[in-house]
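User: I'm putting together a teaching handout on how sequence relates to shape, and I'd like one worked example. Could you take PIG-L domain-containing protein from Streptomyces carminius, show the sequence you're using, and then write out its predicted structure as tokens right after it?

Assistant: Happy to. First the sequence, then the structure tokens directly below it.
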Amino acid sequence: MTTILAFHAHPDDEVLLTGGTLARAAAEGHRVVVVTATDGHVRAVPADREAPRLAELRASAAVLGVARTVHLGYADSGHGPVLHPDPPGRTRFVRADVEEAAGRLAAVLREEAADVLLSYDANGGYGHRDHVRVHRIGRRAAELAGTPRLLEATVPRETVARLMRLARLVRLPLRFDPAALHTVYSPQAAVTHTVDIRRFARHKQAALAAHRSQLMGPGRLSPLMRALVRLPAPLFGLLLGREWYTEVSPAPASPAADGAFRTAR
């Protein structure tokens, strides 16, 4: 059994980039752990209440077969041009000290004796400042913990362009600037692992549906997420039936470290 730890910026990110991989790994008998840097809330959450999105994360994790979820304690930095002040008692993730945050993540990696860390590519996918921070802190935490393998979740830019065309054909409410393809995600040549998750498309779709606040909220991705959870499962699998990674670590030192990714190349 391999222990795979997926490090994400916000609740719901675990589904969008790695949900099928996590469900597949759990179904194959591996231990899966999800760590989120933030609770997904830009505004302050009352001290006597749990952030609602963390409850949604646990519901999503249960669908995917995740054994444990951990929140590192940071606040969402938001995606707009304005970076709000830190809420009471918490630091926005983009302002987090790199060594401190990496130390928190490394402590979980050591506790779990994780064989694989999943993080984000250098662009943080589409460039969200918290996602870029995940990339930097994930790399440092893997160094501190001596984690054997580090794979960074991404999407080939060429695939993004194809998905945009498919999305328009099925009338998904997706807005995307074609010029941005030069700066988001990663080129196909950088991808080292493609994971076929079509058998777990239903799990991924159901896990996405668990993030109700994001489906019903005013966020710019909410219309797209609502449309995705309403798609027939075969069509959802056609659109989102693969997940991609770029391996940063050297060749695995043992079969145990190879684990769930041995057939994913």
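A couple of points you could highlight for students: The domain at 3-250 is CATH 3.40.50.10320 (Rossmann fold). The chain has a mean pLDDT of 90.
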